[in-house]
Amino acid sequence: MLLALLVLLVAGCNSEIYLRDGVTDGDTFFLAPTAWADDDPVLQAWVAYSLMKSTCQLEVGGDPPSRASSYGCEFSARQALLDTWQEKRARDPSISDEYLDKLLAVRDAGFLDEYTVHYFERDHWQVPAEVQLDRFAEWRRQHLRRHRARTRLIGSWGYSASSPMER
């Protein structure tokens, strides 16, 4: 399924990036060429994040979908990031990445929901009632001192040839 999604996303790929209001925008997500050529496990984990998030944004929709933001999209993309990273580490236990390893510890402690809300929340997000930010704050003070959340998008948004906003 992931391969089919990759093929679909790259089918109309070109190297141009379109901007609106100074932000990369569009209705189609184009995977960066390095995603195909580089099998670095950290990069590939972020490819999984990028594909999951962009697919979710397309499902949420909007004008343009690249600006769609929801708790569900960010959370599911972080889950895909960690699932891929965990799979890569299982194949090669010698690999490590400070951020991804720390994020795995967050998930293992049961706080990925809370992490997502704390570090990425937007005012319009609908956050599940089960999210326990107070418990996470206590845990975070002990385990995430001076932590900085990261997002690495492997690709860019652009306009497909059939888009009404085309060039």
Secondary structure elements and pairings:
Layout: H1 2-10, E1 19-20, E2 23-24, E3 28-31, H2 34-37, H3 41-60, H4 71-91, H5 98-108, H6 112-120, H7 133-143, E4 155-158
Antiparallel strand pairs: 1-2, 3-4
Helix pairs in contact: 3-4, 4-5, 4-6
Describe this structure as you would to a colleague:
With 167 residues, the protein is mainly α. The chain has one domain. It contains seven helices and four strands; from the N terminus they run H-E-E-E-H-H-H-H-H-H-E. It has helices spanning 2-10, 34-37, 41-60, 71-91, 98-108, 112-120, 133-143; strands at residues 19-20, 23-24, 28-31, 155-158. A hairpin with a 2-residue loop joins strand 1 and strand 2 (23-24). The longest helix is centred in the middle third of the chain and has 21 residues, at 71-91.
